[in-house]
Every structure is written in C-alpha cells, then in structure tokens.
Amino acid sequence: MSDLVQSIREKYVQTLDAIASAAHSAGRAPESVKLVVVTKTQPLEVVRAAIEAGVTTLGENYPEEGVMKIQSLREFSAVEWHMIGHVQSRKAELVTGNFHLLHSLDSLKLANRLNRFCGEAGSTLPVLLEFNVGGEQSKSGWQTGDETLWPALRDEISAVIALPNLQVRGLMTMPPLGGTAEFSRPFFQKLKRLQEYLSTQFPNANFSELSMGTSGDYGIAVQEGATLVRIGTAIVGARQYA
Ligand SMILES: *Cc1c(COP(=O)(O)O)cnc(C)c1O
To answer: Whose CA, among 33, 35, 127, 164, lies 20 to 30 Å from 23?
Structure first.
C-alpha cells in the first residue's frame, strides 16, 4: 500500500469508528449511516487512492470535474458517485447520466430538466431535496429557516414528487458555518422536524434519508439522525484549488 493510500485508510477507518460511536450514543445502528467521502478539487490520484483505501461512496461538487473522475475511474465499477454541489440547470444532463444520487436538488426548474433528460435516456435519478435551514440569502436550497414558510413549500415539493423519472429519497442541508460542532445541532434538528412535517404532508412519498454533517460536525449530525454524512478534509486533507 502506498503512503497516500495508507494515510487515507487510517483517517477513513477512524472516521467510521467515530460515526459508530456517535450512532451508539444515540441508540442508532452504525450501519444506518453511510459515509460519503468528498473529493472535490482533489486530483485523480487522491480519488484513486481513496478507492484503494476502501472508500465505496464518493461525493463531488462540480458536474464537469465529477464526470471527468467518473470516466477516468470506470474500472472501479462498484464505487457510487454522489453529486452534492449546486447544479445549474444547463448542467443537468451531466448529472443524470453519471451520478447515483443527487443530494442537492434545490429548485423545481432543475427537477423538471433532470426529469426530462432521464426520460430521454430511459433512466431514473434518486434525489434528495436541499433545504436552507439557516435562512442565509447566499445559500442554495428551499428557504426553510422560518417554520411559517413551510406550508408555502407544499406545491413545489408536490410537483417534484410527481415527476416520474426522479425518485425522492430524503432531505439534505448545509448549515451556516459556525465556530463549533454544537453550533450546527439546532439546524440538524430543524431538518429532522422538516422531514417529519413533509412525511405527514406527503404520506406516500419517501423522505427517509437525511444528508447532513461534514468534517467539523458529523458526530452531532449522526446523533440528530443523519443517514448520510459528507466528509472531505477529515479524510482526504485540505482542498487543492488549482
Ligand atoms: C465540501 C463539502 C462537504 C465536505 O466538507 P468538509 O468540511 O471538507 O468535510 C460536504 N458537503 C458539501 C455540500 C460540500 O460542498
């Protein structure tokens, strides 16, 4: 094993252990949480090393960069690729043909385009709905900071659920950046409450997945019910902007 594979492997295993203890502390089964290793901006050698270290689910933020990596690493056919970043509508087609799960579906417009491209290709795309639970103007996701806004979301969410080629599986959020992990807890709790609200509003839909928690706060996210955590720097190191 190369030094790079070895060092990623150590951090990957430590992270899985920390997820398992957070799950136990909340009375949850460790297997109920899936670790998505985020490799945005990381060069191909790092992504390859992560796969060789045992990583099975990778998260990318930028459609072109992700597709380039997917195509270059096709030999690893068991790996699952998740799109976790904002997708512009004109990039929708890159996502439908290449990714196993879109975490960041943030508008009805994007949903309609994804649905159309899936229809043309005869495929379906599993998606999570991204919600902006912190209420920051600059962030993507449906605005849900203030709970009085929730009823107004019903029409759009209902339209997304009705699209035949998208499979809604749950919710995702990226809370405001805070100093400490505890700072994120109320935002994770809010996403959980929103999951309960949507489940009562749409009893036939599936909102079972909760994608929340990154390097700094995933333990808290797991305690609050995360089923997918998205972790980059804690496993593959600092991002490598060109
Ligand atoms: C970059 C990114 C992550 C990973 O963040 P780390 O702090 O490196 O763990 C998770 N989710 C999203 C949406 C991201 O853009």
So the answer is: 127
